[in-house]
Amino acid sequence: MKIKSNRLNFLSKIKWSKINTDRVTTIIMLVLISWMSIWFLRFSKNFPNGDGYEYVMTAEAVYNHGTPDIKKSDAKGYVKYLERMNEEVYLKWIYINLIKYIDYIEREEITFEKERINGTTGFILANNGKMYAQHFWFYPALTIPARALLELFDADIAKSFLMTHLCLLYIVVWLILTNKKLNYPKRVVLATLMCFSPAIWYIQWPHPDFLAGIFTFLAIIYFFTERKVLAILILSIISFHFPPLAFVALFMIFNVLYEQWGSWNIKLFLKLFTASIWVFVPVIFNLMVFEVPSIISHMGYLSWDFVTFHRFWGFFFDLNQGAILGIPLFIILFIPFMVYDLIKKQHLIIYYLSSSIIIMALFFMQMTNWNHGCEVVNRYAVWVSMMLMALFIIRIFEIKRKTLLSSTVVLLVSTQIFAISSQANFKKIRWTAQIMTPISKYVLTHYPEVYNPDPKIFFERTKYETNSRTDSVLVFADTDSVITKFMVDTSAYEQLIQRGMEAVAVKDFMQEARLYHNRWFYVNKSDFEKLGYEQSSDTMIQHINRKKKE
């Protein structure tokens, strides 16, 4: 037992004061830069996942003429360059449609209407007669240096986002490793967790999720190392693309004001104002260009009807895209630590900042497309997970018993390395939002009543099931084509009767069934007997599948 204890205490027994930490940092950075740059730039696939095509076009616009409005020459030039380099132009049809749409605008066949947003596949017509991406231009503008360098060497310009992400990762890791407010072992742990976090799954996406993840992590570290105003500034800028993060910045502002109660002055308020005012930049831009404060909201992508505890729970624990897939042990341990600390009334600042997640969730849960394209975890879960990771590891650093501290850190880091590496696949283009995860398949096969996902998740991830799915009755079947679960639109309950279920039993079942989004209910394998359902007698299966083939 003593030997084991000594092994676990290795971090605390190293005489870091006698080691040149600057040299260690240099070695770490050289290894990280050389390995990740060579591997990712050579082997990873670069597909415009999610809304990536918007960011690609905005980057081209800023690179070509210094403004975010997209011209025909931007789309034509991008396609022409990649074709000349014999690189595949993914989603080429979107760029072709964009070119055609701009032609309509130039012929004045389409004009700006405030009440009715006009546009095509992610691109919006503004009041100045120009086309813009519906997402803000700050993030793609960051890729311009990489874009210019790649073109200089006649390289694949589609990798400009990946190259930018790698550079940002190196910068953030270096900032962590050189943060003198923390001892060196803690810096190494934080940098390691950064490199094995859900954000890494998005490193090759031309999407701001990676950016938001690593800088949210950095902001939390800065907050706890006496750089609170800088943390607020970082979050305010990241909120350009993820507005809910402004609430974390607001919580930090309240904390600063609370701590300096009685010593408020103009200088303090000026600092806080300068750090936080940036959250309004996208709103001002949208008002000037589109005459609405939020394009996403104005186009009907958000609804309070979807804000439910079921969706909130699923955000963390869903078996297909929940945060627990990316930070399993952090979430499992966070809850008992929180209960213990709240009882003891200690480390309350950790849970004060954590509570901002509830406020943020009220807004990002409004998204109608809850199963939007993702890489393992929900895209919003990337920066929420990074926030929880940073907060919890800082809490763990406060453990006084060195053996417990060392063992907990080793366990957290090792499980993170396994969780991230075992679910990653950077060498191929994946469509993880369209398939069930292995664990969800297992549960739906053997214990279907345990897992009732958000209807949007079930709808999209059973899309390629061939076992008699319709638009109103969705089906999950195991590998032997045995149906274990139905998801049914209440307006189409008669389809269950057509499948052989007893009419009275179905109507009675609906009276007690839980409705999701006031529309859908689940029927599990354990319900089949009382509903009188036998798959062998379901004549609809062959009929529906035959119609699909026709």
Please tell me how large the radius of gyration is.
26 Å
User: How many helical stretches?
Assistant: 28
- In whole angstroms, how far apart are the ends? 69 Å
Overall pLDDT score: 91
Tell me what portion of residues adopts beta-strand conformation: under 5%
**Quick one: biggest sheet?**
3 strands, antiparallel
Total beta-strand segments = 6
Q: How would you write the strand order of the largest sheet? A: 1-2-3
Tell me the overall shape.
globular
Unreliable runs: 1-8
Helix content: 55-70%
Structural class: mainly alpha
Descriptive terms for the model:
mainly alpha; three-stranded antiparallel beta sheet; globular; disordered N terminus
Note down, in words, how this protein is organized:
With 550 residues, the chain is mostly helical. The chain contains 28 helices and six strands. The strands form two sheets. Strands 1-2-3 form a three-stranded antiparallel sheet. Strands 4-5-6 form a three-stranded antiparallel sheet, covered by helices on one side. A hairpin with a 5-residue loop joins strand 2 and strand 3.
Short description:
By secondary structure, the protein is mainly alpha-helical.
Present the secondary structure layout.
Elements: H1 2-8, H2 10-13, H3 21-43, H4 52-65, H5 72-84, H6 92-106, E1 119-120, E2 123-125, E3 131-133, H7 138-141, H8 144-152, H9 160-177, H10 184-195, H11 209-223, H12 228-238, H13 245-259, H14 266-276, H15 281-289, H16 295-298, H17 309-317, H18 328-344, H19 348-354, H20 356-364, H21 379-396, H22 402-423, H23 438-446, H24 455-461, E4 473-477, E5 483-489, H25 494-498, H26 503-512, E6 520-524, H27 528-531, H28 540-549
Helix pairs in contact: 3-9, 5-6, 8-9, 9-10, 9-11, 11-12, 11-21, 12-13, 12-14, 13-20, 19-21
